[in-house]
Amino acid sequence: MIKMTLKDGGVREVAEGSTILDVAKGISEGLARVALAAELDGKVVDLSTVLEKDGSLNLLTFDAAGGKLAYWHTTSHIMAQAVKKLFPEAKLAIGPSIEAGFYYDFDVARPFTPEDLAAIEKEMAAIIKADAPLVRSTLPRAEALEKMADEPYKQELIRDLPEDVALSFYTQGDFTDLCAGPHLASTGKVKSVKLLKVAGAYWRGDEKNKMLQRIYGISFPKASMVEEYVTLQEEAEKRDHRRIGKELDLFSMNDQVGQGLVLWHPKGAKIRYRIEEFWRKKHLKNGYDLVVSPHIGRGELWETSGHLGFYKDGMYAPMEVDGQDYYAKPMNCPFHIMIYKENMHSYRDLPYRWAELGTVYRYEKSGALHGLLRVRGFTQDDAHLFVAPEQMPTEIRRVLRFSLDLLKDFGFTDYHIYVSTQPKGKSVGETEQWEAATIALKEAVLAEGLECDIDEGGGAFYGPKIDIKIRDAIGREWQLTTIQFDFNEPERFDMTYIAADGSKQRPYMIHRALLGSIERFFGILIEHYAGAFPVWLAPVQVKILPLTDRNKEYADKVAAMLIDLDVDVEIDGRNEKVGYKIREAQMQKVPYMLVLGDKEMEAGLVAVRSRKDGDIGTMTADDFADKVCKEIRDRVN
RNA sequence: GCCACUUUAGCUCAUACGGUAGAGCAAUUCAUUCGUAAUGAAUAGGUGGUGGGUUCGAUUCCCACAAGUGGCUCCA
Predict the structure, then answer these.
(1) CB of A370 under 7 A from strand B?
(2) Residue A52 · residue A98 · CB < 8 Å
(3) Nucleotide nearest to A521 (CA to C1')
C-alpha cells in the first residue's frame, strides 16, 4: 500500500497501480484533472497527479508530458502573481503551458519592457523562495463571478462555462486564480525560471478583440536544463535558413522587389534545380503526367472556381488587360480542371494524375511573412488527381506511400500524420462523400501500417485532408505534405466522366502537395542539414584546390573528367595557401575537396578531403569519380 | 493587418551626455607559389532605411512611412 498525504491534509492509502479515482474520491468533483501533493512510502515526492479521462494514474515527473504541463502551468501562476504585485492594475487573461514553456496574457496600460521582465523574474524568485502551497478550492458559479469581480476576462471565461459546473481555483499565498489545474504542490518546486519575450496577442486569438500583452517563459527543475534549453535555441539560431542562406549565398529578398518575393541566387537555384529534376523524374516514374499552366487567369475563371468568393483576401489585386480583369493565380487547380474539361473522359481513362511545379501568388499579411517559410510568391509541388469514386481508396494509399517515399529521399524519415475531418460550420459536399473520403484517408494510413492523429473538424470547407509533419535533425516539426479532397470545384466546374453504364458521373478530385512549396521546403532543408547538403543536392559537389600554379593544368584535367560525369566542380585557383582554401570550402559546406600538388600530379592521384571526416587519403581520380557518382546516385548524405 | 523591438560599409558590430562616424571579416592592389580550417602590407569603401520636424548643429531627440525580427491571426 502507498500512503498518500493529500494537499488538503487528508491521508489516503491506495494499492500500487490503483487509479487516481480511488485517491481523488470526494475531492475531485468529477473534474478531469486534479492536482495533489503526496507522500510515497513516507517520503515526500514531487507528485502532482493528473487524472486522465480513463482514470489512469499518471505520476508526474518533469519529463512526462503531464509533468511539464503542471510544472510550466504552476510557473505561469507564479508569474501572474508577480505581475499582479508589481502591476496591480493588470487584468489577467489566460496562462497555459505550451509545447516548450508557458505564457500568461495580461491587459496592461503599457507594454512590458525588458526591465519589467527582469523585475518580474526577481519577484518570481521571491515567490518561489516562499514555497507557498497551491491549494485547490471550488466555488459555484455566482460566487466565482463575485470572487473574480475585478477580472473581466476571467468573468467572461466563467460565463462561457455551463451553469452547473463548480469552478476550481488555485491559491498560493495571497494570489488566487481561476484554473482547472493541474499544479505542483508548492511554488518552491519550481527551481529555475527564464522569461523569454513579450509579444502582443489578441484576447481569445481573435483579431477583432483587444490586444493583450503576453509574456513567454520557461522553467526547469535544474539550472543545467536551462543551459541545455539555451544551447538548443542557439543551435536552432545557427541553423536559421535566413542566416545560412546569406552565408552560403543561396537566396535573398529585396526591399525593391517586394515583400515575400524570393530571389534565388546561382547556388540556391542549383539546389532547386536538383530538387525539381528529381521530383519530375520521380513523378513520371510513378504514374503522373506533367502539365504546365500560366501565372495569370481571367476573373471569370476565379469566379467559377469560387476563389473570388472565398479566397479573395488571399489574392493579389487584379490587373486590367483589354478591359478584362486578370488575377495572378493563388492556386493551380482551376487550370488543371480546364485541361480536364477540354475533352470527354471515360471511366477507362481514370485516374488522371497531373502534376505541376506551379508558381502561385498569395497576399499574405505582412506580419505573417517569415524568410522562405512564409512568402507571397512560391512554387507548389502540386498535383491534382481526378478519380472515379471506386478508385479513391487505392489512390489515396498510393499518394500516401509516394509521399513518404519522396520525403525519405530527402532525409526525412520521422513524421507525424494528421487526418482532418469535416468542419462544424459550413462545408460543401454530401455527408456520404465526406464519410467515404474520411474513412479512405484513415484506412490508407492504417493500411500502410502507420498511425495518425485525428484533427476533428480541422478539414477545409471543401473536403477532409491528410497532413504530414516531419521532424527535423534537431527535433522540430514542420508541416510539408497535404493531401486534400475537394468536393467544391468538380461541382462548380461541372466536371464529368462517362461511366461503364454510359451515365455521366462526377469524378473525385484530390489536391496534393508533397513538399508543400519549393521555397518552404528549401528553407526546411537548409535548417535540417544546417547548410551541409547531401552530395546529390550540394550546389558545388567537389572543390578542387591546386596547391601551386604548376598544378593548375592537372586540376583542369581532373575537373573536366568529373564535369563530364555531371559532377558539379569548382576550381579554387587563387594564389592562397591551401589551409585558407580549405577553410573557405569547409565553411561553404562543400562535400569533397581535392588537394592537388606535385605529388598527386606525378602519380596521377587525387588527395581527398571530406567535409565530414577531413583528410581521407589519396586515390586515383577514377576511383574518386566512382565514389562521388555512386553517392550522388544513391543520394547519400 | 495588430502589439513590441530593430534598421550605422557587402557581412558582424562599435560610437555614453546631440558637435556631420570606427573596427574585424569580405573586396581591390602588390609581394608571397605555399601540403589539409585564416601569409603579409597597402588601398578603397558610409548624403547613418526613406521623408519630415525640433535645434546654431541630428547617426543620436520627436513624427510619419518602408523593410526586417519575435509573437497574434493565417497557412504551402
Answers:
(1) yes
(2) no
(3) B76
- Catalytic entry in A33, A384, A609, A611: A384
Q: From the candidates A270, A333, A376, A543, which is the catalytic residue? A: A333
For A485, the grid coordinates are: 479532397
Q: Is it the case that residue A356 has pLDDT exceeding 70?
A: yes
The one-letter code for the residue type at A254 is N
Q: Is A629 one of the catalytic residues?
A: no
Active-site residue, selected from the candidate residues A465, A512, A589, A609:
A465
> What secondary structure does DSSP assign to A3-43, as a single string?
EEE-TTS-EEEE-TT--HHHHHTTTSTT-S-----EEETTE
- Residue A18's alpha-carbon distances to A37, A40, A60, A64, A484, in angstroms, are 17, 14, 15, 19, 44
The candidate with the shortest Cα–Cα distance to A221, out of A128, A295, A143, is A128
pTM of the model: 0.86
Which residues 380-439 of chain A have a CB under 7 Å from nucleic chain B?
380
Minimum-distance nucleotide, CA of A575 to C1': B33
Question: Residue A19 is which amino acid?
Answer: T
Strands A296-298, A319-321: pairing kind = unpaired
ipTM, two decimals, is 0.92
Give Cα separations from A323 to A297, A298, A299, A545 (angstroms): 14, 11, 11, 60
Question: What pairs with residue A4 in β-bridges?
Answer: A12
Does any strand B atom come closer than 7 Å to the Cβ of A379? no
Residues 6 or more apart in contact with residue A226 via CB below 8 angstroms? A192, A194, A218, A220
Side chain identity, residue A601: M
Per-residue pLDDT tens over the stretch A173-193: 888 888 876 777 778 888 888
HEC string for A199-258: EEEEHHHCCCCCEEEEEEEEEECCHHHHHHHHHHHHHHHHHCHHHHHHHCCCEEECCCCC
- Judged by C1' against the alpha carbon of A313, the nearest nucleotide is B74
DSSP reduced 3-state for A129: helix
What are the pLDDT digits (tens) for A112-130? Answer: 877 788 888 888 988 888 8
Nearest to A636, CA basis, from A414, A473, A409, A413: A409
Amino acid at A492: R
